[in-house]
Amino acid sequence: MFVVLAVSLVALAMVVTDARLNRVPTPSIAGSGPGTYLIVGSDSRENLPDDLEGRFGSFAGQRADVIILAHVSGGTVQMLSLPRDLKVSIDGHGTDKINAAYAYGGADLLASTIQNDLGVGISHYMEVEFGGFAEIVDAVGGVELTFEYPTRDAKSGLDVPAGTQVVDGATALAFVRSRATEELRDGSYQSAQGGDIARTSRQRQVLEAVIRKALTPGGVVRAPSLANSVTASIRVGEQTHTWNLGLFGFRFVTAPASESMALPVTGSSEGGVSYVVRTEAATQAIAAFVSGNPLPIED
């Protein structure tokens, strides 16, 4: 009787929460089965909480600052980051950077660009802004990160001591936003792991930490607060529901293995515009991701 009641209450809560999710039009997304998730971090400053105001500059509008493809295949979590400056062909707009697809046509144009230009099918879409990301990290009680050296980034506001520590939402956001990372080595701060490619690794690291923390016993205790933060902070595609998110999270944390990598790229310039373009290794990585085979991660 108790089990039946508990399952019924959980089901009811999911239905109620699902009705509160913010949805965006995504007609180009198939939405069948668990499939592949397109996870986007928007750099909109519109809904930043007071303690984060002014820490990341200011401009109108929003861009796709984080672009991650994720799925669970054959018991392995696979995450593939796409650099925001990746050169692609955007329907109706010609050649441009991939994050321009989001600026031109939002979630659906970004999804269709990835599907058409990279050949990766997408089943679900999820998007979170700066402020919402920080709020979700706080809602799960922070996430554990390890820093080998004292680390800072004056531009993003990152400033942490060495060691393993639980960081709050503002610090986690500064960590994933860092492009000018410096580590205190031999008595002075030295540049380390800077730039967009290294940043994608940090983004995947924190995304994984958030999902795993949310499904720990402590995360379950915080479920009401987390549910409120999630429904207020994220936007999903028309095909994505709370049960899809819950199933993805469960498969994510119970998978016995995980692989993650950034799409291999190299710098390029065309008409005075700087891009990054796919290498031969990128073709192999995309093929492996689509088929669910092991990703060609270099040591």
Task: Give structural attributes.
single chain, 299 residues, alpha+beta, Aminopeptidase, seven-stranded mixed beta sheet, four-stranded antiparallel beta sheet, 9 helices, 28% strand, globular, disordered N terminus
Walkthrough of the structure:
The protein is built from 9 helices and 17 strands. It is of the alpha+beta class and about 300 residues long. Strand 3 and strand 4 form a beta hairpin. Helix 3 crosses helix 4 and helix 4 packs antiparallel against helix 5. It is globular. The protein starts with a helix and ends in an 8-residue tail after the last helix.
Produce the secondary structure layout.
Blueprint: H1 2-20, E1 22-24, E2 37-42, E3 64-73, E4 76-81, E5 87-90, E6 94-97, H2 98-118, E7 124-129, H3 130-139, E8 143-147, E9 151-153, E10 158-160, E11 163-167, H4 169-177, E12 182-185, E13 188-191, H5 195-214, H6 217-221, H7 223-233, E14 234-237, H8 242-254, E15 257-262, E16 265-270, E17 273-278, H9 280-291
Parallel strand pairs: 1-14, 2-7, 4-15
Antiparallel strand pairs: 2-3, 3-4, 5-6, 7-14, 8-11, 9-10, 9-12, 12-13, 16-17
Helix pairs in contact: 3-4, 3-7, 4-5
In short:
With 299 residues, the chain is α+β, with helices and mostly antiparallel strands. The protein contains nine helices and 17 strands.
- Which CATH architecture is right? 3-Layer(aba) Sandwich
How confident is the prediction overall: mean pLDDT? Answer: 83
Q: Which CATH class?
A: Alpha Beta
Q: Supply the number of structural domains.
A: 1
- Gross morphology is globular
Give the radius of gyration.
19 Å
Mind describing the biggest β-sheet? 7 strands, mixed
SSE order:
HEEEEEEHEHEEEEHEEHHHEHEEEH
How many E-type strands? Answer: 17
Count of helical regions: 9
Instruction: Give the % helix.
Output: 40-55%
Query: What gap, in angstroms, lies between the N and C termini?
Result: 52 Å
